[in-house]
Amino acid sequence: MRRAWVVGLILGLGWIEEARAQHEAVPAPPPPAPPVAPPPERSRSQWGIGPAHAAVLPLAGSRSEGTAEPGLALEWARIKPLSARTDVSFRMAWGLTTWDRFRRWSRAAYGVGAWTTEAYRDVYGWMGPRSPAQEVHQAPGEPRKDSDPTRPFRIVGGSMAMVFLSLGYVTSGFLYAASLVAPSTWVEIDGAVHYNLGDKDWAPYLKGGLGALAFLHPRHGSLVGGIGPHFGGGVRVGSYLHLGLSATWSPPYLHGEFQDGRTHLLVSSLTLGTQD
Questions:
Q1: pLDDT tens figures, 144-170
Q2: What is the pLDDT of residue 58?
Q3: What was the pLDDT predicted at 154?
Q4: Helix, strand or coil for residue 260?
Q5: In Å, how far are 113, 137, 149, 150, 260 from 129, measured between CA atoms?
Q6: What is the sign of the dihedral through the CA atoms of 244, 245, 250 and 255?
Q7: Element (H, E) at 168
Q8: How confident is the model at residue 126, as a pLDDT?
Q9: Are 262 and 60 within 8 A, CB to CB?
Q10: Which residue has the higher pLDDT, 133 or 251?
Q11: Cα torsion for 189, 247, 75, 51, to the nearest 10°?
């Protein structure tokens, strides 16, 4: 009896050891992978075009002339995300509101071209044969004389004149090209921090920062520089569409003045465009 009990104990210990060995042979499951953070949103560029407004607001008693003119603005911006709710942007804008300057330059271009065309017509007529009233009359029976001995010289002189007259068309073309940028009123560079109020597909935002202006007065023709607060907002729709409102205000003493005046400069734009 005792021998059977010893044999059973030995067999039981063997089974326990075999079960423990099999348990140790099974590898433990790997630990769960840490959560993968979403990739950071990449920087993006924006282009836009839309209506603009430029105003010079003189203080009481200022010698500067006030203006308020509508026009067109073109802009480009580079935006870098800082977090899920904040971005930082660098923006460049070009405002064209001085349309009277465009009319003056385009009229000058047309005048130079019209004068050159009329001058070509006159020179061509001068190079041609003389009219019957200018013919040299001769008696019947006399040997035929050359009725226009000066024509070869007029052809040479007229050809040289036409070469120089072509400069008129070159000048006219230059004035036409310059008239496209003649309405320029301001160029702006600004930096701002954006606060996003929505998600990726519908993302309204507000922004604020600092802007620097180069401003050409529509009346005085004086070019001044200035700085001031930049503010605005907008909305990004999906991955491609963007609507933005931007304004920069340069108060007195933060920009050059016109004719020793004291003025506020205010430029603004509402642009619609794309983003990549």
A1: 555 667 778 888 888 888 888 889 999
A2: 87
A3: 82
A4: coil
A5: 26, 15, 10, 10, 64
A6: positive
A7: helix 151-179
A8: 82
A9: no
A10: 251
A11: -150
44-98+184-275 has CATH 2.60.40.3080 classification: no
* Host H or E run for residue 203: strand 202-216
Question: To 10 degrees, the CA torsion angle through 52, 93, 241, 46?
Answer: 180
Position of tokens 């282009």?
47
From the list 236, 233, 231, the residue with the least C-alpha distance to 198 is: 236
Q: For residue 110, what are its two tokens?
A: 């047309």
Closest CA to 220 of 101, 52, 109: 101
Helix (H) or strand (E) holding 50: strand 44-58
Question: Exposed (0-12), middle (13-18) or buried (19+): which is 141, by Cβ within 10 Å?
Answer: exposed
Task: Give me the residue spans of the domains in the chain.
Answer: 44-98+184-275, 103-130+148-179
Residues 6+ apart with CB under 8 A from 204: 196, 197, 198, 233, 234, 235
Compute the distance between CA of residue 185 and CA of residue 104 in angstroms, rounded to an integer. Answer: 15
Question: What are the tens digits of pLDDT across the range 17-65?
Answer: 565 655 555 555 667 766 655 555 678 899 999 999 999 988 877 777 7
CA atoms within 13 A on the CB side of 17: 6
- For residues 156 and 127, the answer to whether their CB atoms sit within 8 Å is no
- Matching residue, tokens 């940028």: 181
User: Could you tell me the pTM of the whole model?
Assistant: 0.72
